[in-house]
Amino acid sequence: MVGRESEQGVLSAFVTDAGGRSLVLRGDTGVGKSALLEHVADLAAAEKYRVIRAAGVEAESELPFAGLHQFLYPLLSSIDRLDDVHRKVFDVVFGRSEGTPPSVMTLGIAVLDLLSLAASQKPLLLVLDDGQWLDASSTEVCGFVGRRLTGSSVKLVVVLRSDLPSGFDTAALPELPVTTLTEKASEQLLDMHHPGLDPRIRRLVLDEAQGNPLALLELPPYVRGNRAGHTPEERLGYTGIPLPLRLQHVYGARIEALGNAVRAELLRGALDGVGAGAAAGHTRGTRYRMVDADEAAACGLLDIEPLSGDFVFRHPLVRSTVVQIATPNERRAAHAVLAQVHRDDLERRATHLAASTIDPDEQVAATLEAAADLATRRGGSLAAVAWLTRAAELSESHEERSRRLGSAAYIAGHSGQMDQAQQLVRSGTGPGTDDSPASVIMSCYAAFLEDGDVRSSQREVFAAIESMRDNGVREPDEMLSRLVDLLLAINQYASDETAWERAHQLLDDLGDLVPSPSRVYQDSWGDVVRRGAGVHERVEHAFAGLHDLEPWNVTWLCVAAYHVDTLSQYRPHLQRAVDREVETGAVSTAMLMLHLIMLDQIAVGEWDEAERTGQRCLELATTHRLGLFVHNIQAYLGLLAALRGQVDRARELQAVVDAWARPRGIGFLTQIADAIGTAAALAEGDYEAAYLHAIGITPPGSFEPYAHQASRTLLDLVEAALHTGRAEQARRHALAARDADLPDISPRLALITYGALAMTATDPAEADEMYDRAENHPAGTGFPFELARIHLAHGIRLRHTQGRKAARLSLTQAAATFERLGAPTWTERARAELRATGASALASSAHLAALTWQERRIADLAAGGLTNKEIGERMHLSPRTVSSHLYRVFPKLGITSRAALRDALGKLAGDRTV
After folding, report:
1. Proportion of the chain above pLDDT 90, given as a percent
2. Angstrom distance (rounded) from CA 903 to CA 891
3. Are 640 and 672 in contact (CB under 8 A)?
4. Which of 175, 588, 872, 898 is most buried by a 10 A CB count?
5. 662: number of Cβ within 10 Å
């Protein structure tokens, strides 16, 4: 027995205590009263009690003394041992002789005499189940007897339903309330009897049962068998859950006994999701207000919510039963009324229109489509798919039906529901139309995401777009836009120059038919070196209309922001949206959001968080068997491991990614595999290997077209070349970055371009200028790993050119940053350089480490001139939290104003190492 420790303790004491006693167990149907009754009977049997059982029967509730006869039947043989007066009382009551019916007191005393006689050799336990159905005469006698058991060897236990009136209500017998189980006990009971439930179904059962053990035991098979397609919009317009007959009977008879008007009122409340039980006060949104339902409240079906005074359902099972026993016509009529009630709420109205309409109706279909658009923008992808599918069913023309099914399939595909998406496409196109735009989109999207098939997907999408162009498409077309975006995504991963040039020509042919967001993707996803200028501003402009963007367009714009290294400013939106996307089933969009969050966490130095985010994303991708996502995430986890000096893990992931991506021609991932090799070799100090990996991405002195890692690994190639005696190649590469105007494309590219130019400069003045530009770049603290590498290189140069003391500040800053990041090999390299200056490396970094990582980053940003609000946006904190951190930073640095921050941060390290 789960969750009944308290009740079991009371019952154990009840049985073992000396003398006679009575006890009433009162609780709702299915709450476990009968199980506790069995428990007390077993305890009594173990204590050598004679257990006598009886149960109230509704059919006999009007028969005088029927219950008492059932109770005393096992003791009738002892009646002849009573005195004549008491024996005659029983003869009259049980019809064995005629006479005036005795009073309650007379009969009660006779029963007490009989029980005392029967218990003279062995104590008695009388157990009565369903006492609410006991006839009134028997109830009065049992109450009389129960109050007079003290000093006897007789105990009485009565079980009552709390939702029905009973003569025992005024019997003044001690009571033990049997309440519903706690949430923890409910989960334990459910998991014990139904292990391995799908988390969504498990939650649904727990919510519907609300601690009722009978419901917890009975519901799962019905929910599991009938609710596989349960979607969020069904909760908005409540449909109930399928109930087994045993649970239907709990409230069904009382519901069916109500008048038609009251039943209709309850049905409207149930279908609109009026609250029930403990959750009644937490129902989302405004619900239908049931009126004139006092009859239902009087028979225990409704309660009154204390704050609002509105009727609410007594238990979720009442609500489900109301819906389940209604006829289809009754449900449609209720939905039609509710559609009018919610005429000013688009999504609520759409829900009820969808359920109330049978025949095709273009006006209703258009309303459902508008609701789907709104739901998509707020993250309700599964609801949108359901509404669009229903809108298609209600469409009056084949063209509109096909278009809406195509839209439903597209959203389903972005939700990771590939099978459903393809089924929707087949429903909309019919046989023999596998080359329709909708079919091409879904088949290629599935092949691309599930198996990384870029080659055939690319061919099919090119052909579909060219076909639409050649057939004279003249107006902006939704299918064309989707095909264009899919082509750009495939091309991004193929990273093939020929395919990209063909795509540019094709999109130029289409002209204004290509939406402006797609133009942003075109210029950022392919060759950011040659086409990335101005992308940052265009992304900002697009985000100004955020509320009009679909979730996938938001994430794709964030991909563009990643390519120009401005993702941090959009990360708060991703973090707010990602849990919603997972919850509402938009798995593909959610995975991309998580992946982008991970990339920004890597960039800004939140490496522990990046690891956790990556693992979460990897679990989702693996669960949904999306091979491209799986290997994409593994690639960046490998790169992160390489940065942290975990070279064995990095190379293991590098091998996995390369073996999967290279045969498929996925250049995007093979480049990251090479970047992993470069970073791992740099971490180990194997500069020759690092150089060979780096030139596998792009040759020195140029940036391979459409190789996204070519510019990102600029600093890697330059450092590796310098350390292997290839100064001329290093300088040529740094100058190529300058000549390509990389600093104008992104803040990170500006930082590493200035760093590369400084590292390779032979003119001391140029080196000093470039190091100053890099180390004081406003965005430098947003890329701490790159900045620390530049500090390290600068410190080494200063030690050789200006002496040991001049080098200490830069080297200290590098060591402290590497240490905070968790890059031990880089930390040791910086400490070794510090030791070469004659300073104690541990002491040097200890003072900066006195500030926490977060405090140091906030201090750096504040020293760079950012306001609290700007720092908060960058670090995803409130301005008040930023202010609190600075309040703690000032005394640690011995300053009292923001203006002194920059000097204090620099002076602190220098002073401590002199």
Report:
1. 47
2. 14
3. no
4. 588
5. 13
Contact status, residue 380 vs residue 401, Cβ threshold 8 Å: no
Residues linked to residue 464 through DSSP beta bridges, in sequence order? none
Give the pLDDT of residue 430.
53
pLDDT at 473 over 90: no
> 111-125 as b/e, with b when 16 or more CB fall inside 10 Å?
bbbbbbebbeeebbb
pLDDT class of 914 with cuts at 50, 70, 90: very low
The SS3 assignment for 900 reads: helix
Backbone angles phi, psi at 764, to 5 degrees: -55, -35
Q: What is the pLDDT of residues 368-423, one digit of tens each?
A: 989 888 877 776 777 888 888 888 889 988 888 888 888 888 888 777 677 777 77
DSSP 471: T
Environment class of 245 (CB within 10 Å of its CB; exposed 0-12, middle 13-18, buried 19+) = exposed
Query: Which is nearest to 267 in space by CA: 244, 246, 304, 237?
Result: 237
Q: What is the mean pLDDT of residues 79-89?
A: 84
pLDDT bucket at 579, cuts 50 / 70 / 90: confident
CB 830 within 8 A of CB 792: yes
> 840: pLDDT confidence band, cut at 50, 70 and 90?
low
The type of residue at 804 is R
Query: To the nearest whole percent, how much of the chain has pLDDT over 70?
Result: 92
C-alpha span between 383 and 484 (Å, rounded) = 26
> With the C-alpha atoms ordered 591, 595, 601, 606, is the resulting torsion angle positive or negative?
positive
* pLDDT band for position 366 (cuts 50, 70, 90): very high
Among 200, 199, 197, 216, CA closest to 208: 216
Residue whose structure tokens are 């220098």 = 910
Residue with token string 């040529």: 732
Q: Name beta bridge partners: 175.
A: 24
Secondary structure of the chain: what % helix, strand, coil (to 5)?
70, 5, 25
Packed helices 346-356 and 328-341: angle between N→C axes, nearest 10 degrees: 160
Q: Determine the 3-state secondary structure of 822 from DSSP.
A: coil
Rounded Cα–Cα distance for residues 507 and 512 (Å) = 9
For residues 43-47, average pLDDT: 92
587 near 415, Cβ under 8 Å? yes
- Cα first-last separation, the chain: 72
Residue type, 369: E
Residue pair 334/267 in contact (Cβ under 8 Å)? The answer is yes
Q: Could you tell me which of 413, 339, 322 has the C-alpha nearest to residue 376?
A: 413
pLDDT at residue 725 is higher than 90: yes
**pLDDT band at residue 227, thresholds of 50, 70 and 90?**
very low
Given a contact cutoff of 8 angstroms between Cβ atoms, the answer to whether 668 and 662 are in contact is no
Do the strands 302-304 and 175-177 form a parallel or antiparallel pair, or are they unpaired?
unpaired
Q: In this structure, are residues 826 and 790 in contact, taking their beta carbons and an 8 Å threshold? A: no
Mapped onto helix, strand or coil, the DSSP state of residue 106 is helix
Confidence at residue 184, expressed as pLDDT on a 0 to 100 scale? 92
In angstroms, the CA 498 to CA 505 distance is 11
Name, in order, each residue with C-beta under 8 angstroms of 686's C-beta and a sequence gap of 6 or more. none
pTM of the model: 0.68
Rounded Cα gap, residues 227 and 4, in angstroms: 31
Query: Which string of DSSP letters, residue by residue, matches 326-390?
Result: S-HHHHHHHHHHHHHHTTT-HHHHHHHHHHH--S--HHHHHHHHHHHHHHHHTT-HHHHHHHHHH
Q: How confident is the model at residue 650 (pLDDT cuts 50, 70, 90)?
A: very high
Beta bridge partners of 51: 125
Task: Quote the CA–CA distance of 152 and 149 in Å, as a whole number.
Answer: 6
Nearest to 335 by CA among 398, 390, 280: 390
Inter-CA distances, 398 with 390, 391, 728, Å: 14, 12, 67
Q: Which amino acid is at 513?
A: L
